[in-house]
Structures are given as C-alpha cells and as structure tokens.
Design goal:
The chain is α+β, with helices and mostly antiparallel strands. The chain has helices spanning about 15-25, 55, 65-75, 85-100, 120-125, 125-140, 155-160, 175-180, 195-200, 210, 215-225, 225-235, 265-285, 315-330, 365-385, and strands spanning about 10-15, 35, 50, 50, 65, 80, 105-110, 110-115, 145-150, 170, 250-255, 285-295, 300-310, 340-350. The protein is globular and about 65 Å long.
C-alpha cells in the first residue's frame, strides 16, 4: 500500500452552506444570525433549526436545534423556511466554478467535495485555495465561503479542513500529520460516532494518540470489520480509497406540521413521499421487494414492513403502503400524534436482474400497471411535473416533499416535481 510523501488531496467544505446560500440570495439576511427551518415562520415553535449561519453559530446555535432553544440563545435569530431547489442550484453552480480550477474527484455531499492535486498545486496549495475562493466570490457570491484542507489522503484532508473553519485553509504535510491528529479528541475523527467512542473507551482508548498507537488488526477487531483497519491506514497517511457502495434503498421522511399529525393527514403525506421515492427508483431502473413504513410519535414510535413481489409501479407499491396504514390504524389510537412519517423501498433488484414470483402469477397485471406508470412518468416529464398521479396529490405546507434539505443526498431537478 502506497504512503504518499507529500500532500495529494484537497477537501473542501462550504461554511454553513444552507444558511449562507440564503444570505447570498436574500440581501436582507446578510450579516444577521439566520436559522433555516422546514416550515413557515408561524409554525416555528413546533419545529427545529435544521441549519444555521456562522453568525448564529457564534451565539451558540447549532444545526438540528429546537427553535425555542435557538431563540433563547439568540433572540434576534431570523428564521427562514428552507429552499431546497435553491440549494441544489447553488450546489451545481459552485461545482462548475471549482471544476474550472481543478477536476473534482468525488462529491461527498451537497456541501463537501474532494480533489486530487496536480504537481503545481502540491507545490503551492495556498495559491490554489486563493484561486478557488476568489472564483466563488466573483462568480457565485462573496457570502458563500468555504474551508479547505490539504493532506496526503482524503481522511486527513477532511480532518484538516475542520481546523480553521469558517473560511480557513489548513495544510497538513505528511511529516507533521500525526502530531496534528494527536491533539484532536476522538469525537473529531470522521467515522467515530458516540457508540464507537464508547467502545474504544471500554478498550482503554481515550485519546486520539492512543488510537494512533494501536495496531491495524486491533482496530479491525474493535470495529468488527475491515473498516477499522482501513481507518488505521488512513490516519497514518496511506493512500486509502473509499470502497464503492451500491444502492440499498430509496426512501423519504418528513416532519409534519401540527395540523397534519393525525393518522389520516399523515397517510396522505406518506403516499406522496412513497410516490416520489418510487419515481426516483424507476429513474435508476430498480425494482423493490420490501416496503417499510415508520412513524415517529410524540411518545415513542411505530414501524411495520411488507414484502412486495419485485415491483416498481405505483399501483403495487401504493397498495402495499395502504395495507401498512391499515395496520397502523388498528394498532394506534386516534389520540396518537404523528410527528414524522417515513417510507422506504428496499431489497432492490436491477431491472435487468428482476425475477418474477412464479407462485404469484401476476405478470400480466404487473405489465399493465408498469405501462400505465411509465405513461404517467412520461407525461409528467413532458407537460407539467405532476400533471398526472395515481390518487390524490396533496403537498404539505412549504412543499418540497421528497426534495427536502439534505446533507447526504443531492436532489435532482425531478425531486421537486
């Protein structure tokens, strides 16, 4: 395994991406503490600040904080409703500008990416960082800033990127990387969550320096899989490439405004979310053999699943969802408040590998509904986004069902139909 002798990777993270895009788009928000929420502002006391600006963070506000708590820390925080399609378009514009300076290796999320460095940039990483920042400020806007880390591999450059936020540039040369790492708490290491940190503590590892001093096989045993060993090599500066992952599911979740938290209203939102997920699945040419419905209640939660006969058409999928909602109606009282509804299609098969259930013998019916669904999708693409749907289409307040704010998934334009 190769161990680079110089920096080879850049990791770029946009600072407070969602809030800074709002500040760039709306001048009245600039320089003010901003919190992005999922609902219109008159529902603020029932919801959460899902992203905040650097001005709000300086006052103690954090992403994913209840709005009353955020307002207690920062009484003058400006709450604005999310604009997911604006975030998507800003993301694409920023990627275009960055690609003009350096090829993008991997887009990690809507606000993070990584690049391989050319020899010129290895010699002068600060000049590259300056070119990127100037280009973004000039061609997209000065209120969207980024932090950049340089190191020998992707993991180390990501950790370096966190050091001087916001709007900083950090270079970790290979010979000094372990020293920089040793000063970080375990919770700052990408890939070590709360449970993993507890497991490490039980094994007598309480600091990053102790983690670095372990052996690769020991870390593999602690993680319970090869990822622990890969973590060891990443922390020690080896050229570790992320393993490709396959698609495992399609799903959507939605926090419900107060007026939609009874089972009949939540059911309508569940149908809409599942229709959106099924459209995404069809665009990628997959079929599903299992459906999950999960509900976050004011007290506790509820979950059920249903097997599907390897389908991708709306009729079969929505019929399965209807059965799950009937189960929910039987098991939950009318007084239950449903705070969040989610649907997931899984056990995926590529279209080329689909196998029908020989005992079900519904191929003729399935082909008919697949032709109908294909026609609906085609007409929606051509004439009006949602000109046709199978059953009612009732978007929740604020819209964006299925195209909501997301750090890990970058929505496509079709997600906003």
């Amino acid at each position: 395994m190769r161990k680079p002798e110089t920096i080879e990777r850049l990791y770029l993270d946009f600072d407070g991406f969602f809030a800074s895009v709002m500040q760039q788009a709306f001048p009245a928000l600039r320089g003010r503490p901003v919190g992005v929420i999922p609902f219109e502002t008159d529902k603020a006391k029932y919801t959460t600040v899902i992203a905040c600006s650097k001005e709000a963070k300086a006052r103690g506000v954090k992403n994913v904080m209840r709005t009353p708590d955020a307002q207690a820390l920062c009484p003058d925080i400006v709450l604005v409703m999310q604009r997911p399609d604006l975030f998507r378009r800003a993301h694409n514009a920023l990627l275009n500008e960055i690609a003009c300076e350096i090829p993008i290796d991997t887009v990690k999320s809507i606000d993070e990416l990584t690049c391989k460095l050319a020899p010129r940039d290895i010699r002068d990483p600060h000049a590259l960082a300056q070119r990127l920042k100037v280009r973004i400020a000039k061609n997209v806007g000065p209120h969207i800033t980024c932090s950049i880390g340089f190191a020998a591999n992707r993991l180390l450059s990501k950790l370096a990127c966190k050091m001087d936020k916001p709007n900083g540039v950090t270079v970790w040369e290979p010979e000094g990387a372990l020293q920089y790492l040793s000063a970080l708490p375990l919770s700052e290491i990408s890939g070590i969550g709360g449970r993993m940190e507890q497991r490490l503590n039980r094994a007598g590892i309480h600091t990053t320096a102790q983690l670095i001093a372990t052996q690769p096989k020991q870390m593999r045993a602690l993680w319970g899989n090869v990822n622990g060993e890969r973590m060891w090599y990443g922390l020690h500066g080896y050229d570790i490439q992320a393993q490709p992952t396959g698609r495992g599911m399609y799903g959507h979740g939605r926090v419900l405004p107060p007026e939609l938290r009874k089972i009949d209203k939540a059911r309508d939102i569940g149908r809409l979310l599942l229709t959106k997920a099924a459209r995404r699945m069809r665009r990628d040419q997959f079929y599903a053999s299992k459906l999950w419905l999960w509900l976050d209640l004011r007290e506790g939660g509820w979950f059920a699943q249903r097997d599907l006969p390897c389908v991708n058409d709306d009729q079969a999928i929505l019929t399965g969802l209807g059965a799950l909602w009937e189960k929910a109606r039987d098991e939950l009282s009318r007084n239950h408040e449903i705070v969040r509804v989610g649907v997931t299609l899984l056990d995926l098969s590529p279209a080329t590998g689909r196998q029908l259930d020989m005992f079900l013998n519904d191929d003729c019916d399935r082909q008919k509904w697949e032709r109908i669904t294909f026609s609906i999708d085609t007409l929606n693409r051509k004439f009006g986004k949602r000109v046709l749907s199978l059953g009612p289409w009732k978007p929740p307040p604020g819209g964006y069902a299925g195209g909501k704010i997301s750090y890990t998934r970058i929505p496509s334009a079709e997600d906003f139909w």
